[in-house]
Amino acid sequence: MLAAPGSLRDKLLICLLGLGGTRVEEAVTLRRGQMHLMESSRELGCPVPGPHLHVRGKGDRLRWVPANPYLLAVYGAHMVERSGIAAADRSDFVLVNLWGGEIGAAMTTGRARRVVARLARRAHIARHVTPHQFRHGLATQLVERGRPLDEVQRILGHAQYETTRRYVTTTPARLREAIESVPLPGAVP
Q1: Are 160 and 166 in contact (CB under 8 A)?
Q2: Is the whole model's pTM more than 0.90, yes or no?
Q3: 88 in a domain, yes or no?
């Protein structure tokens, strides 16, 4: 979907959902001041090392998520894109209306859902795609790359370990790999 035609703002939304693991509500309420993009944010009073996002999640819980380098690149390009629109440039929200509606106002969750659906159509994805599916996809990708569930839980901001387990989808390839990994000592076909 990142390759589908669309604005950099729309690509940034996909990055926040799919590479940042944010819920759609978290993405549309994210403010520029919550994005610490330098290697050190100590000058801001933040002890978290490296580029990261401070995300306010369910129950008003605050968590930080490391920022993927691709997300950082899309954010930078988006900021250049929106700098030519005065009302958008003044807004502290990361995702804002660039056309239609009140320019510079925060994107709504409804608009974000429509953007995801539009990008899915442009990417020729036949099935219905929702913003929340990106969280499931990120969780599955992290586990497939060997990341432990406690890391996935922290990135997604789940309070309960069991919630994270439900997000992880086992693929047929992983099942085959698991069964083929069992050694058969001394067995000769």
Answers
A1: no
A2: no
A3: yes
Is 155 inside any structural domain? Answer: no
Establish how many alpha carbons lie within 13 A of residue 1's alpha carbon, considering only the half-sphere containing its beta carbon: 25
Gap between the Cα atoms of 106 and 79, Å rounded? 15
> Which residues, other chains included, contact 143 with Cβ-Cβ below 8 Å and sequence gap of 6+?
149, 152, 168
Pairing of strands 35-36, 52-56: antiparallel
Per the CB < 8 A criterion, the answer to whether 137 and 18 are in contact is: yes
Average pLDDT over residues 120-129: 94
Residue 167 placed within a domain: no
Range of the domain at 111: 8-132
Question: Which residues are CB-neighbours of 17 under 8 A, at least 6 positions away?
Answer: 24, 27, 116, 131, 134, 135
**54 in any annotated domain:** yes
In terms of Cβ atoms closer than 10 Å to its own Cβ (0-12, 13-18, 19+), residue 2 is: middle
